[in-house]
């Protein structure tokens, strides 16, 4: 959890994040991320506007301390604080939230905030609070990760950072980036790709019996056409997200000899 708070917090987030922060009113959230100047994804996160002058970045994979330090370098003379909120803790349940719905969260920073992280067929509630009494359950955490992948939210390990543009990760499905707002790191690349219609690769979801290796090539027929970017275990085996050409041959797909069965991404996680 990273908090950006102060008179210039929203303007700073608008200038750095790839989605339109100024369009988010207090009490709502959306998916966003931080890019390199070449438009490659450094980190993905949920951005919640918890007050008119404060946003939270809920960061599932990137190291929050490192990300906060990197963001701090660009604060310059703006009046805001970039703080890693070690006093706040996240817990999740596989059930619909009692009050939150879609992009509207419920609660307060003092008492805890619940978010609707569900999609079609998958009910999930994320809660951020000062309480850390929820039991740690690695099996449920992996199930949560698998649900993210099935809904098209890529969980990027360090080896996949700064490798992909938002379009290559199909983040348009989640409404996670803007091509119309003002400048931000990588905006020129993202907008040019969008308006010139040059999106040639995107995410594909697979199921498989064995764990595929993140970063491994994906072969379609005899040609190596893509790469595994995220994996997670579920009850039936493994699920994986890979970046592949949008147009590709109709042929068997494998990665390091492991057969991959293509599945449709579930909708409903866009915010």
TrEMBL record:
Keywords: Transit peptide. The keyword Transit peptide applies. It comes from the Bacteria. The keyword Calcium does not apply. One of its GO terms (biological process) is iron-sulfur cluster assembly. SUPFAM superfamilies: Folate-binding domain (SSF103025). This is Folate-binding protein YgfZ. It comes from Lysobacter dokdonensis DS-58. The lineage of its organism: Bacteria, Pseudomonadati, Pseudomonadota, Gammaproteobacteria, Lysobacterales.
